[in-house]
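Can't paste images in this forum, so I'm doing it all in text. The chain is below; anyone willing to post the predicted structure tokens underneath?
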Amino acid sequence: MRAPVVRILVATCALLVSGCTTTPVSTAAPPPKTFVSLTFDDGHASHYAAAMQMRARGLAGTFYISSGLMGSSTYYMPWWQVYNIAEAGSEIGGHTMHHADLSTADAVTVRREVCDDRYTLLNQGFSPVSGFAYPGPGLSPVTQELAKECGYSTGRGVGGLFNRYCVQCPAAETMPPEDPYKLKTAFPARAATTLADLQAVITNAETNGGGWAILVFHGVCDDGCTADLSVATATFTALLDWLAPRAANGTVVRTVGQVAAGGAVTPQVTPWLSCT
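Text version of the structure:
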């Protein structure tokens, strides 16, 4: 009766001598199913603090910049803040030179506003500047084609996804998107937007098979800095605190460019750098 015990001991010793070890159970997070992009329009001054709040939590967003307006008044960020946002891991995209109304401007002005904005951002050192957001009612077949001609890889509109104002809208943008120059989003966050409203956009995507949930922000402040399109700072901060740990369940925050490229890239969020 001792022989089986001896054989087991010999086999165990052989494994140890050969360097074999047991394989630990993986604790890695599941592959992402729901991608969330936090996007910011206009280059408003409140975006800098929002970006730093994101950086502190290892998150990155996409900031659509009207390059001709940066530093023109205290309403907008100065260029050094835009640089710091990019250095902290977020994406910089275009939003026309002067936040032009592309639905009423003449063809020459429209082309100049869209293309020159990208060229300005590239000349400022940002790269690849692959995303564009149409200001206001500026999304049309003409501007979609122009965004492509100017070198953008994506064009983001406003609306078209599930939110409190459109509960019958699709839960999420498809991956890959049906039309990369007509990306759909939830309704822009505003003064009346609650944390529950923002969470509902994301959880609705999660419970409907995942996909791409794109949120739109203008002002992030408590003084109506962008009138009705201003979301409370506490609401935004609470969203970040709620979002960050959801990666463990397969919901991740990525920039528009990262998701458009397949979503596999993990944002490289770097420490804040101060310029003087």
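The radius of gyration is 23 Å. The chain has eight helices and ten strands.
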